[in-house]
Amino acid sequence: KWHNRSRGRPLPPGPDSLPYVGNVSHMRRDEIWKAHRELCEKYGEIVNVPVLGQRIMILGSPRVISELLDKQSSVTSDRMQSALVSLSGQDANFSSQAYGPKWRRHRRMFWQHFFPAASAKYLDVQRDTTRMFLRKLLASPSRLSEHIRYNFRAAIVKVVYGVEEQEDSDQYVAIMEKALSAAEAFTPGRYLVEFLPFLRHVPAWVPGAGFQNDFKGWRDATNWVRNKMVEKTKTGMVSGETSRSVVAQLVERIDGGDAAAAADELEVIKNVALMEYSGGAETTYSTLQSFFMAIALNPDVQRKAQAELDAVVGPNRLPEHSDKPNLPYVEAIHKEVLRWAPVLPFSIPHMTSGDTEYGGYFIPAGTILLPNSWACLHDPETYPDPERFMPERFLRDGKLNPDVCDPAQFAFGYGRRTCPGRYFADASLFINIAMVLHVYDITPPLDEDGKPIKIEMRMENRLISHPMDCRCTITPRSEKARELIMA
Ligand code: HEM
């Protein structure tokens, strides 16, 4: 049977793997994207690394990624249905759903509210929450990460549910945050239950099964967000408070004639809203953390961006989204952050739903495909001196250079699964980067004696990766800047 399917084509090459466990130790290596790149340097652009009986292939070049995930997307857009999905409460999350009619229905609903023209309706909310973010930074700059979190959470919760962020409620913030952290469950190799599903039946009190408590926490928080937030929207619709939100518009369209169909539609709305929240908040949060880190490490970049902002925007107002065409250097910083510190270094893994092939190699149905987006974004052929944060690489004669490969091609994923929140994310990141640079100076953190602390850029080994350290010193550029922040 195997011979009929493979028609004699070999599997791609790969390292020798141990009996039963395969390459499990490889998957647990630090900065796994670098380890993947080393394997591709040794074995070629597609490498076979089975783990505990699951076939996994690393895709190590733009060519193999485009051939398999874009051109053959009808058979490479599935997702692995791992035990982690239901254990962590993510069955409702359509980024984990199998490729098929259910996923299509969710994605279509999402896209209706996030395609480019629809996303443009949210610019005001993004601008307002960014202004609030600037004020928060002034009050307590050392709480940078917390404020970035607030910023994106507040924007997305307002757009999706129409609800104002309840800053005063620690419990609310804690649950919203806990739901977001469910992505940690998918850190490659962190939970063996991913490959040994019988472990899901081991009770939490058995030594070594503490992971069950992690999963319960994520499940409970995710269910809370999924159900309670939609209830809040529905309550707010009575007074008109939440009526402009995505959820309100979707709920209004439900045809009440058929009770079962209406209940089913409401469940899909809850899922889509949850995904808008969880897909958006964590990714943009990490990208903006990396931005602060990049600027603290590169004073020249900051100086050039501020010179551009001073010339185009001037001292009497804050930048707007409409300034974007006139701020190529700021836009180049935005591109460079996506390239330098990709938040999903190997995207969200795809899975094949049918047999296929690449370069004479057989790729059977049920194979997990891990595109090494990080390696593509750090390829010295495309981006010389790739470890350096250098926005200039995207510019020619003071304008964005269309000949340089746009990092968005890799940072937002591939084929039919490409990130549908990309336009919302782009607008959000641009306005944050522009406003922050316009009013603040960002420099390295200081120790107790006021001396700069040496900081180093390292990303955490997680599916959604974050800089390990993004401490920095944030001070208003001038008295005028302080007035703009407070205005
Ligand atoms: C810097 C910001 C962001 C980055 C870098 C990013 C990146 C990605 C990537 C790499 C994927 C996987 C694509 C694939 O499987 O090939 C993805 C999927 C997804 N993203 Fe984003 N994203 C960002 C922001 C957002 C925002 C703001 C939203 C929501 C408003 C969002 C919603 C989603 C959803 C729903 C999926 C799942 C798509 C599917 O499986 O069909 N993302 N994103």
TrEMBL record:
Gene3D superfamilies: Cytochrome P450. Its main location: membrane. Pathway: Secondary metabolite biosynthesis. It is a single-pass membrane protein. Keywords: Heme, Iron, Membrane, Metal-binding, Monooxygenase, Oxidoreductase, Signal, Transmembrane, Transmembrane helix. PANTHER family: P450, PUTATIVE (EUROFUNG)-RELATED (PTHR46300:SF7), P450, PUTATIVE (EUROFUNG)-RELATED-RELATED (PTHR46300). This is CyP450 monooxygenase. It comes from Lentinus tigrinus ALCF2SS1-6. The lineage of its organism: Eukaryota, Fungi, Dikarya, Basidiomycota, Agaricomycotina.
